[in-house]
Design a protein that fits this description.
Radius of gyration: 17 Å
Strand order of the largest sheet: 1-2-3-4-5-6-7-8
Shape: globular
Largest sheet: 8 strands, parallel, barrel
Bound molecules: cytidine-5'-monophosphate
Order of helices and strands: HEHEHHEHEHEHHEHEHEHH
Distance between the termini: 13 Å
Length: 240
């Protein structure tokens, strides 16, 4: 995969104008733009179409978690919208994940569209072992064991990959196969600020650790020159 294709720029902004400005500047330097609940809920699905109209691919990061019928229907909507990727919580269960994978495949075939990459979110990195046990009542598994088990379940349910830490990518690929995609946040080049990320990995190292795609936000969006920051990440990836 080309270095640029690996970069997914997180558009964590409220204003569609700011998102479109970033998309216009950075389309030649990134493989896709991630629209999460902040921007989607502020600007609606039109922001996806507007970015696509400027030549950008979109990862719609809304983390579905509902009954299988509802998630299947929402997955059809994502497919019609032309999302390159979208995601759901593995905690919604096997049947829910399968409903999403099947609905995306069926709708893509029906309309002659590309089949989106459907990703599972396993355990959110903000959840501690204590919260898992005391608040979510999941006992008997460490967070990383649970993340791995859910990744395996996602694979068996027909999903394309998971969102995970670069530190988990290798292990997940060992269990789910090399084609099971890993999309990793927590990426920081050596020259950028860590911000609130706790466990950070430089881009080239993340790829060596098994990351297929990297979600990168503030190292690019908060840089004085976002285009120069993205170009620098690409050259680091190419030099690896
Ligand atoms: O600005 P930054 O590079 O930290 O942005 C990372 C993006 O990845 C944000 O949109 C954040 O919500 C998302 N993310 C994350 N950690 C996770 C899952 C998603 O940082 N475990």
């Amino acid at each position: 995969m080309e270095a640029k294709e690996r970069i997914i720029l997180a558009l964590d902004v409220d204003e569609p104008e700011r998102a479109l400005d970033l998309a216009r500047q950075l389309s030649p330097y990134v493989g896709a733009f991630k629209i999460g609940m902040q921007l989607f809920n502020s600007a609606g699905p039109q922001i996806v179409r507007d970015i696509q109209a400027r030549g950008g691919e979109v990862f719609v990061d809304l983390k579905f978690h509902d009954i299988p019928n509802t998630v299947g229907a929402a997955s059809k909507v994502m497919t019609r919208l032309g999302a390159k990727m979208f995601n759901l919580h593995a905690a919604g269960g096997r049947e829910m994940m399968k409903a999403a994978a099947d609905a995306a495949a069926d709708e893509a075939a029906r309309l002659g569209l590309a089949r989106p990459i459907v990703l599972a979110v396993t355990v959110l990195t903000s959840i501690s072992q204590a919260q898992l046990e005391q608040e979510m009542m999941v006992t008997g598994h460490s967070v990383s064991e649970l993340a791995l088990r859910w990744a395996v379940m996602a694979k068996k349910s027909g999903l394309s990959g998971v969102v995970c830490s670069p530190h988990e990518a290798h292990h997940i690929k060992q269990h789910c196969g090399p084609d099971f995609l890993t999309v990793t946040p927590g990426i920081r080049p050596a020259w950028s600020a860590a911000n609130d990320q706790k466990r950070i990995t430089p881009p080239a190292q993340a790829v060596r650790m098994g990351a297929d795609y990297m979600v990168i936000g503030r190292p690019i969006t908060a840089a004085d020159d976002p285009v120069a920051a993205a170009a620098r990440i690409i050259s680091e990836l190419e030099a690896k």
